[in-house]
Amino acid sequence: MKCSVRVYFAALATVLFAGCSSNKTQSAAVPAEASLPSSVVLTPPSMCVDFSAFTENYRISHFLESAVELQSLGDVQREARLRQIAKLSPNCGEAIVLCRMLLEDRSGAELRSPRLGAPNFVGSSVEVSNLVDKRLSKRWEQEPISIVGGVPILIVRGYTLEGLPELPERYIDYCLANGRWRKIKYATVPRAKLEEIVHKFMAEHPCDQYDAEWLRSQAE
Predict the structure, then answer these.
(1) Using CA atoms, how far apart are residues 12 and 197, in angstroms rounded to an integer?
(2) Cα(137)–Cα(46) distance, rounded to whole angstroms?
(3) pLDDT reading at 7 higher than 60
(4) 11, 64, 70 from 4: Cα distances, Å
(5) What is the pLDDT of residue 52?
(6) pLDDT (tens digit, 9 = 90+) per residue, 201-219?
(7) What is the DSSP letter of 36?
(8) Neighbours of 136 (CB within 10 A)
(9) What phi and psi values does residue 130 have, to the nearest 5 degrees?
(10) In terms of Cα–Cα distance, which of 176, 151, 163, 191 is closest to 76?
(11) Dmax of the chain from CA atoms?
(12) pTM value?
């Protein structure tokens, strides 16, 4: 089956937990005072999270509601709320998607993608050209989402990573230091309209049945 060759978030979590266990074992042989550059942040095992629940339960309506809430706040309160979401969320996806929705580079371009590994895009099993947004004639600029018709469609099923992912708090730091709040205003969208947008997206970016079912579920 095509899906058997993919590496999804659940598999990624297994790799991360294994990596954390390995690091913990190795650290026993290193003095506690062993010097490391101040920029190095070691992630404890408790922060190695399973992202599978996020990808499988992603709903566009939830993120539209969250974006509307955040945009109703002042800049200081908005930043504080975003950081709170990063701390309370059981996975990194929540805060990262909201960063991608709400922030852009100060030049008006897109900020860099979060450092979570090599993304597995929807439709990548159909043809390599589907990694390119044909509407923009360039790679997906807002990975792991794509804003289509004013709504955030999740376009990444998982990541392949050797090591530890960038923490959501660090990605927020990067976005706030290098970006600005977008002028676009989000609004909630009826389910029928969401289904229409997702259907149009799938027509422009063919994918197999497995990905198609997952995309349709995002509009629920």
Answers:
(1) 30
(2) 40
(3) no
(4) 12, 32, 38
(5) 64
(6) 999 988 899 999 999 999 9
(7) -
(8) 10
(9) -70, -10
(10) 176
(11) 60
(12) 0.73
